[in-house]
Amino acid sequence: MSNVYDVIIIGAGPAGLTAALYAGRARMSTLIIEKEKDGGQIVLTSEVENYPGCLEGESGPTLIDRMAEQAKHFGAEKVYDEILEVKLEGKEKVLVGKKAEYIGQTVIIATGASSRPIGCSGEKQFTGKGVSYCATCDGAFFEGLEVFVVGGGDTAIEEAMYLTKFARKVSVIHRRDELRAAKSIQEKAFANPKMNFIWDSAVHEIKGDGLVNSMVLENLKTGEMTELVADEDDGIFGVFVFIGYTPKTNIFEGIIDMDKGYIVTDENMKTNVEGVYAAGDVRLKSLRQVVTAAADGAIAAVQAEKFLSE
Fold this sequence. Notes:
- The protein has helices at residues 14-25, 60-73, 135-138, 154-163, 183-191, 290-309, and strands at 4-10, 30-34, 77-80, 83-87, 93-97, 101-109, 113-115, 131-132, 146-150, 169-173, 195-198, 201-209, 211-219, 225-229, 238-241, 245-247, 258-259, 262-263, 276-278.
- The protein is α/β, with parallel strands linked by helices.
- The chain has 2 domains: 4-115 and 245-309, FAD/NAD(P)-binding domain, CATH 3.50.50; 131-241, 3-Layer(bba) Sandwich (FAD/NAD(P)-binding domain), CATH 3.50.50.60.
- Strands 1, 2, 3, 4, 5, 6 and 19 form a 7-stranded mixed β-sheet that branches.
- Helix 1 runs parallel beside helix 2 (60-73), helix 1 runs parallel beside helix 6 and helix 4 (154-163) runs parallel beside helix 5.
- The longest helix has 20 residues, at 290-309.
- The two termini are 26 Å apart.
């Protein structure tokens, strides 16, 4: 592409789409580059209750659809491409994609994060064959069956409760003896008759014959190994993993300052490279939620506008 954009936003999640909305309203020429599909992690969420003003029964996909439409309304362009290399020094920032090269005077990195795997034996082999990282995508496949959810934070427990709509029984496997989820979420989970909890445990191995039908758990206090086998009538069960995320920052290594893979910024979303900002889950921060991602995106776009006007 020969266009030189005022701002290029990498990623079309809540942070990127909010940045595009603010940049578009400021009459900045704006390009969003998204690798796969709009929304990032939030499109995997079945129910959104903690975003101000969200509709009753709001889901991740419905919220993202409206955000994307709003950004488009204010003139933001969008392409689907994977960025392989970045050249961020100098006045013009060059992003090299699989399909084309893109040039911008400023860049907002909103690449987000991806689901973190357990790392146990059999996990990769059975991904898509009983192991899943998306309750919304795969919950219905386990209608009337038993499923296990690995994790103890807000997302894990919220998605476990969502899975009770389909599964006969949902067992949460957690490394500690108490959940990390918000108390209000815990109360709902403990009150749900379909919910069960396996404490102080980690998944050691996932096994099956084409599909998952057994799993070995390790008790982290005693070291004891226990094998869980699918009900004979079922023959299979599901394993849903929600143990956090890994930031998508590989292409910025050695260029942008990071801490454990997360991009370091100041309160104005500025990175160590002039004219380059970061927003959302990819940034080093204390809270990763849709509302904070949107705030980051707004700040980044406003700062990009100020940078260009100066």
